[in-house]
Each structure stands twice: as C-alpha cells, then as structure tokens.
C-alpha cells in the first residue's frame, strides 16, 4: 500500500494566492462593469527587452539545422551565460566566483523550493515575518517546519518579526538557527538591507555555523550605492551563504523562465559525525539526477541582457517600474495612510486603517476603489494589518489607482 | 550547525554518465586524429520540426508588446497545450482525461525525480534491472532506497530482472511493492511491452494497492498497433498509475525543455490511518510551491507539434531514427554479436562478446572501432555484460559505425 507524505496534509488547503484570485473573480462576476486595477500581482507587464527577443529569434533559428542544433544543455548551464553573470553581476561588484559555483535554473522559485533537499529534515529554520509563503511551505512539505499550531505558527520555525518598531529589519536572534532565509530587497515590505545590517547576519551565521539562503531577486531595483546587491559583498559570506537570483523581475522573464543559484565551494554543512561537506557538490549531484538543464532559448535570451544594448534596456525596464514606485510613493504620501517600502523595490506595505485586518482591507479596497492588493496575512502573522501593493502595472494604471486611493482615503 | 542530508553521501561519487564522458575525453586527448562516432548519447541530433521553430518565433514576437506579453504561466500549463495533448495523445487512443489531470513541465526528468516528494520516505520501490539510474538515485537522495550493499544493490529496492531468459519482460514479483517504476518502450534495452504484459502489472497494482510510475517517453517509436502508447489504455490503470511523457525524443526538445505528467484524479495513496488521498491534489500543491510554470515559448512550440504540419514533421522525425534503427538492426544481424531491442525504440542492448564486462566492452569498441556506447552496468547489475547503442545519430554515422562493428566483429 503506497503511503502519502503526510507532511503535505499539514499545508493549508488552499494556496494563498489562489484564494486571492478566487475572491477577485467573484467580485468580477458580481461587478461586470467595474474597472479593476491590479496592484496585487508580483508579475511584470512591460514587453521584454528587445535584445532578449532578438536572441530568442536567433536561438530558435539555430534549431533549424543539425550543425547549430542544441540538445541537452550542460546541467549547470551554458558557459556563455555563466561567464556573463560572473563578469557583470559579481566581478563588477568586487566578488570573484568560479564558473562551477553558478547553477543556471528555470527560475529562482524551483531552486528555493528544492534547495532544502540537500539538508537534513530536522535542521531548524528561521524566516522573517512577513515573508513570501513559498519559503515556509517548501519546508512544511518535507517535515522541517514541524506542526501548525493554534496560533497560526509552525512549531519548528523561528519567526523573526519585521515591524515598524525595527524598521522591518529583523533582530539577530538569541538562539541558534541552522538555516535562515533572508530576502532583500524584501518582498512584501519593499525594504532593503544595508551593509551594516547584512554584516550582522553573516557574522551570526559564521559564529553559529548556520546557513543563509539569500534571495536577492529584486537587487536590480536598489537605488543606493551603499546597499549590497549580493550577500557576497560582505566578508565571510562565501562560507555561509547560498544566493538566489532571477531574470524575472530584472527583465520580465516570468514567462521565459531563467534564473540562477550561487553556491560557493566554501559553503559547507556537516554530517552528524561532524564531517564538513561541500554543498556545491551535493547540489551538483541533485541537478544531475533531477534536472536536464534550462532551456537553450531562455539561456541565450538571458545572455543578451548583458550586452551593452541589453544592459541599457534592462535599466529602462527597471526605471519604468521605479518611476511608478516614486509616483505611487508621492501620491500615497498625500493620504493619511501609513506605508513602508517603495525605496529599493517596487513594493509598498500599507497599514490597514482603523481596525481592519488584511483581508478586510483587501476587500474594502476591492469593493470601494476596485483596486486589487495582496492581504498581508498571506506573508505571515505580522502581515495581518497590512496590504501589499506593487508597482508592476502601467504608469497610467498606477496613477489612476493612486487617485482612487486618495479619493477613498478622504472618505 | 546546519546538517546535510546524509542520504546524498550514499550516492556514488561520480554521476555515471559523467564517467563515460571523462573516459571518452581521455581517449580524444591521446587519439586526436580518431574519428569517433557517438552512439552512446541518448540525445537527438536532427533539427527541430519547422512547425515548432515557427511557433517559437511567433511566441518570441509576442513578448515585444504589452498586449501580447506573457508573464507567469498557469502552474499546470497553458490550456492550449493541455487541450492538444488530451485530444491527440489520449482521446485518439480511447483514453479520456480531464485538463486538470495534466501537468506541463520542463521535461520528464524533473517530475520523475520529484514525484517521490509526495510519498512517504519508507515506501518500498521496485525497478526493472536494467533501468536508467535516475529512478533509483532520486530515491536514494530521500532515503527511500536504503543502504548500498556490498553486492552493489540498494537494501530497500526490489529489483525486477530483465534478461534474455524472460525476453526482458519483468516477472510479477511474489512480494508486495508500494511503488513500481516501469519504462516502456524501454531505455536501455529497446524492448516494448504489449497489452497483455502491461495488464498483468496494472492488475498487480490494483490487487496490491501499489502505484505504477510509467515512463512512456519513447512511445512515439512504437511500430506495432497492439502495443499500448499509454498505460491508461489498460483498464483500471487510472486508479494506480502516474504517466510521464516528454517531447524530447518525439520532436527533439532536449534543449527546448517541455514534457508532461499525467495524474488521474482516481489515483490515491493512503495515510497511516488508511485515509485515501488524491495524489493529483498533492502534486498540484507541490507545483504551486516549487514551480512557476514551464516556459511560454516551449509550451507554444510543443503545441505546434499537434498541428497537421507539426504531426507530419514529428512523424518524419521519428521515422528518421527508426530508419537508422532498422539499418543498424540489419547490419548487426550480419555479425556474430547477440543483441536485443531495436523494434519499437532507437536502442540496442548488445551482449558483450567473450568474457568482457560492460566497461571492457565499452573500452574495446572505443579503442578498436572508435565507437562510443554506454556500458550496461550504468543501468544495473543485469547490464554488466551489455552495451547500449542508440540510433540518435545521422544515418551516415550509424551506417559507418555498423560497418566498423562488422569489421571489428570479424577479428
């Protein structure tokens, strides 16, 4: 009798984002004429940089001849893309990595979800609260998160509160945690972490022999030169951190699918007997067994983002959303609403007015201003009084949404 | 202190196929003038069907405008592709499935590797011997395979021998097994399973409340109308089988990356208390948490294979390799070598002559005829006297390789 992995049954029945979609769809059915503006989606809407599209056409054409055909890709990714990453994303910031420390994937989510496979199921984990649900849920699936308790928390998860009181910068915990997930610039709060703060975490990890899973998929939105784009800009991080990057938010690759994971060879974890094992080697084995490489077209397309034409277009792409962000920030500032973020990421974390909780705030804005946000509770207990708004819509829509919110906030 | 998943340390240090590549590369260095013919690779070499390339260009162009841009794909795949699959791969063979029973992925290997996540780590597994190493290795990684014992076998794996004595058709085991992996047409032996044989397995699974993981990625190569392309052609299979398909070998998608997994809603496994859980639902949760959809371009490209133009080109694609297969079969028949397969799959399973083991046979052919095969031992103990040759090269190269083998076999 085949038995199921019962850890799956601990997951909430509904995937949070599906629940949001369901509620929006109900609204649409009952209000067919309403003009809804979606500021809930983390998905992009601008066309791809033309350099990426040109590279796609070129790659597609290569498939028409045996001589230029590409079959199975190297499991870790094509050298042409890895070299471009090393040179542009790391060497340019003073970080030197080897090609074999980069793993090209089909998007950051897959690797963030699977990276736990190479670690024991009983390591303790630490997450900021709020945080994107996929970090915790991938740990629930393998039993690492423990049990879901009455207070709405997982028994084996250490929550690091991010609130206005600490400017959404988690305090270093007093206890030891084995694996810590950090995402900066942060989804959902839109807050970035400077070198001083990030250094505290790297030092904590070194002192406690802990691992940091660093999600820097929004690094392209950083505006301040003092804020690190990569955790490896911090001394010692190469011993304790795995970094996840993606082209999704940098260049609109959410439908193209390409990202990468960095595992320096110095990063180790131990066996029960205390032997230190190189995680790069384990992940390489994982990839050989469970992956057949990322799409050639996607890799060529990503490579094109590093050409001079591509870089210019990526900059324009990011600027567009940061322009929206600035516009939203200015307009939100004219309301009585309390909000955070919007400096180094296209996210706003808006405090629900009065005694509304996040679902109530979500429904109020949907029904009274026809604006879709994301209820903060989907990101953790500390999100229960917040709504996330993103700037990933057109400038016109962002502006109109803010006008509606200004109008609505007056009432 | 972060601890590693020690099951990874049980894996052989080297990935088998990397070892083969390493040996071939050593040969190349010491024999720079040798003209090597590669019949070891399971990778294709023909250009993509033009319909698929045209669809890629069209999809790439859609990314240039906000109106036709595609961001995150539906997690289970785009309806346009799912509908084409249901109609052409299943309804045409009398199998009726719902759209939500299909999961589009980035290639079969990922899902075959990850499917075990939704099942308990202590289910017993059964595999044919020989079998592609990824089935066992993905189970080793999570501890399900047990320990590697001196005889070169995993303690929790039931091996189902496939030898000339049983025409490479595994006998139904006397004990109960929870999860059975079957791959037909088979890689590496090249043998297909007819309805009568497959029916025995479906009945075994029903009687024993077992699960069958059915890999039918080579179904397009089936020549005999009596041989099932899908396990769901067998009555009752929808209750007990998960099927994996891929466009890699059907249409040369090894570099494009697209495949799909079928999990009928009737397929269940149980909790320890005996409650039956729908695996479709668990896999859907898995996909929501650890996957962001397959590339839009790859999905559009796969869809084009189901147009009338695409179908014609796929047929030509498959015919080319089956023509190679027939040619190789005819020429091998003229030698003293004993071999199997080559009827419904582009694989030959060749018995090592004399007392050679599979690595020795591999090296002999490499050094004496400059032909690369794959040592059978990489597929299991029963492969220790065999070499796998594939027909995935050009007709000219296949022919020349066979001439060399004829010459070599004479000596």
Automatic annotation (TrEMBL), chains A, B:
Residues 35-405 form the Aminotransferase class I/classII large domain. Pathway: Amino-acid biosynthesis; L-lysine biosynthesis via DAP pathway; LL-2,6-diaminopimelate from (S)-tetrahydrodipicolinate (aminotransferase route): step 1/1. Gene3D superfamilies: Aspartate Aminotransferase, domain 1, Type I PLP-dependent aspartate aminotransferase-like (Major domain). It comes from the Bacteria. Keywords: Aminotransferase, Pyridoxal phosphate, Transferase. Its cofactor is pyridoxal 5'-phosphate. Pyridoxal 5'-phosphate binds at residues 72, 108-109, 218, 246-248, 257, 292. GO terms for molecular function: L,L-diaminopimelate aminotransferase activity. Substrate binds at residues 15, 42, 109, 292, 388. It catalyses: (2S,6S)-2,6-diaminopimelate + 2-oxoglutarate = (S)-2,3,4,5-tetrahydrodipicolinate + L-glutamate + H2O + H(+). Its EC number is 2.6.1.83. The modification N6-(pyridoxal phosphate)lysine is found at residue 249. Homodimer. Involved in the synthesis of meso-diaminopimelate (m-DAP or DL-DAP), required for both lysine and peptidoglycan biosynthesis. Catalyzes the direct conversion of tetrahydrodipicolinate to LL-diaminopimelate. Belongs to the class-I pyridoxal-phosphate-dependent aminotransferase family. LL-diaminopimelate aminotransferase subfamily. This is LL-diaminopimelate aminotransferase. It comes from Phocaeicola acetigenes. The lineage of its organism: Bacteria, Pseudomonadati, Bacteroidota, Bacteroidia, Bacteroidales. The gene is dapL.
């Amino acid at each position: 009798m085949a038995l199921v992995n019962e850890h799956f049954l601990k997951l909430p029945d509904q995937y949070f984002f599906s629940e949001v979609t369901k509620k929006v769809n109900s609204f649409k059915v009952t209000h067919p004429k309403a003009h809804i503006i979606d500021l809930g989606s983390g998905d992009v809407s601008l066309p791809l940089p033309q350099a990426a599209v040109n590279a796609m056409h070129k790659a597609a054409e290569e498939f028409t001849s045996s001589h230029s055909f590409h079959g199975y890709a190297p499991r870790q990714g094509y050298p042409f893309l890895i070299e471009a990453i090393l040179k542009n994303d790391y060497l340019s910031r003073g970080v030197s990595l080897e090609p074999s420390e980069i793993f090209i994937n089909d998007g950051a989510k897959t690797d963030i979800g699977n990276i736990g496979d190479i670690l024991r199921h009983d390591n303790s984990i630490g997450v900021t609260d709020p945080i994107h649900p996929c970090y915790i849920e991938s740990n629930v699936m393998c039993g690492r998160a423990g049990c879901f308790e009455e207070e709405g928390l997982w028994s084996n998860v250490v929550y690091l509160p991010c609130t206005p009181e600490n400017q959404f910068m988690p305090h270093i915990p007093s206890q030891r945690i084995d694996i810590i997930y950090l995402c900066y610039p942060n989804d959902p709060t839109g807050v970035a972490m400077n070198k001083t703060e990030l250094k505290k975490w790297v030092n904590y990890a070194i002192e406690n022999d802990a691992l940091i899973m660093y999600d820097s998929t929004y690094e392209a939105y950083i505006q301040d030169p003092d804020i690190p784009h990569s955790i490896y800009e911090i001394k010692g991080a190469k011993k304790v951190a795995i970094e996840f990057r993606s082209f999704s938010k940098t260049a609109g690759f959410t439908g193209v699918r390409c990202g990468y994971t960095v595992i320096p060879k110095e990063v180790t974890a131990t066996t029960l007997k205390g032997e230190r094992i190189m995680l790069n080697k384990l992940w390489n084995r994982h990839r050989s067994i469970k992956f057949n490489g990322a799409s050639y077209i996607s890799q060529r397309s990503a490579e094109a983002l590093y050409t001079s034409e591509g870089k210019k277009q990526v900059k324009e792409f990011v600027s567009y959303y940061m322009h929206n962000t600035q516009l939203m920030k200015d307009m939100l500032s004219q309301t009585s609403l309390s909000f955070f973020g919007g400096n180094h990421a296209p996210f706003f974390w808006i405090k629900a007015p009065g005694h509304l909780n996040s679902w109530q705030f979500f429904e109020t804005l949907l029904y009274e201003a026809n604006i879709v946000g994301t209820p903060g509770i989907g990101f953790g207990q500390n999100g229960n009084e917040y709504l996330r708004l993103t700037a990933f819509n057109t400038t016109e829509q962002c502006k109109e949404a803010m006008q509606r919110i200004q109008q609505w906030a007056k009432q």
